[in-house]
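Continuing the series of single-chain predictions for the mutant panel. This is the parent chain; the variants come on the following pages.
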Amino acid sequence: MKMRWPVYLLILAMLLGLMTGCGGQAAPSAATAPESASAGEAAPQEAAAQAENPAAEAAPAEAEPAASATEEVPGEPEDAPDYREPLSYPLADGSVTFTILHNEPALGPMTGQMNMSTYGDFESIALGTEAIGVTPEWTSLSAWSGDTQFNLVVASGDYPDVFTSIDKYYTGSFAKALEDEVIVTIDPELMAENMPEYWNLLEDDPDLKRAVTVEDGEFAAWYSIFDKQIVNEGYFIRKDLLDKLGMGIPESVNQLNDFAYAAKSEFGLQSVMMMASDLAVMSEAFGLGSASAAGTGTTVATGAGFSYHREGDQIVADITSERYQTYVEQLHQWYADGIVSQNFTELDSGNFSGDMEAELAADRTVICKTLVNSWDNLITLNPDPDFELSPMVVTMDGGNVHSGRGERQFDSSSLSSTCDPELYPYILGWMNYWYTDEGAMLGSYGIQGVDYDYDENGDIYYLESITQNEFGYPPMLYSRARCFSGAAFGLMYQDRTVPFYTETQTACIDLWTSRTDDEEAVPQSLSLTTAESEIVAQYATDLATYISEEIPKFVTGARDLATWGDFMATVESMHVAELTEVYQAAYDRYYES
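Parent structure:
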């Protein structure tokens, strides 16, 4: 017969009471959910919520709680997933409120015209809030001055109940924010009881759970979660030119060079590969750019932060590795031979700059890297009737890219230190809704019957309100105003954009994803201590500045590659060893937790 742990504990407590002949009540810890509402106006709302959501109060002895521990099954391993039962909604009648400081919705060119400055302006969130019965009050941080606004809020001491993106805005990230008592940690049991849908996602994926908890197993934040990992950005190559040369799509650097030099000679191209001011062309092929102290990315040639990769269980600084020198030597040769853009200092490789589209349209490049979403722009601007692109993955040995598919978690939300603990269950319960099937569909696709529907095969398709929207925006772009892609909470379905893709775009994602593994990936969520953060702040910027000044000189020939040893001596004197030790320690702790 299966029994739940709370029942075991209750029986044990009764036996102890009989043996001792006396009873008592333990004092609640600071990280435990309140058992009842405070006196005054909150009491009726709390009572209503508990009536509709039994998980919000302690269960009587004869009833099982709505959010309980995993059932014990004979023969089941002790570390079996601790799944929890879902919450019942609504939690309250709508009059319970909390405040949240959030990044301005990322609507790109639609910003302003849509009159949607906070997530409270989204119809999908309004509909979900009505179902939840708890009402958030939103304040947005501007995309242009968010750092300044955030710092002013912190300096004032007048905190919202929920901060988002502490890891982005607060110097020293979560560790420092906790030390400075700006945010608080959340006890695992409190999280499990009040965000069971989120909790169950973590129980399904130990790597994800490790990534979103601090060393003691508590939570400094909850995160937006992707339902799966995909790679939606990669390289494209002119397939029509490959066909004319009788070549297949390159997979190794040697094959890439065979094509690049043949294409330049045969077609009189100004350049073959677009290289921009970040000098990051093909850096992944050389095993660089796995992670960086300044955030993930591949701008390793200009020293964006302190970039590093993993070899086994060892963190290795990119700049001191042999592969980095090989990469710079190859860039120099490509530059000298006109294979990469000669005007690279004037070009921006960002996905929204438009430079790569212009270079591709004018035949000044035949290989570029961008998001799969940019496919339409790439193929419509070149006037050549034979113009054709194919996705490509190139590495030194023709195998996989080892820098990883990325992590499932992205933006974060945290409870502030001034939030009333009586609000914890309501806030967490509101957040939990967006990890349910119903909430995730609202967040990822919008409103059924208004924005999307299902065909006879059960496949999702978007309605004319999206595909032929009144504003004339591209459907994929406009859909972002109907769901809330990019918010700091909720489960995001990666396939939400599939209805917009052609078969070729889907094939791009499949290729890039299948040819990427985690063999040298470093978790993006490594947590630094305050002391470690200070070391990074003290040394990483100066190192990055020096690298960004010198590497372009090596590429163009302004500095002789024969002086590489002198360059490395200076680099090593700029505390590379200390920076490597910081990330090694963080990596070791990550897998010890």
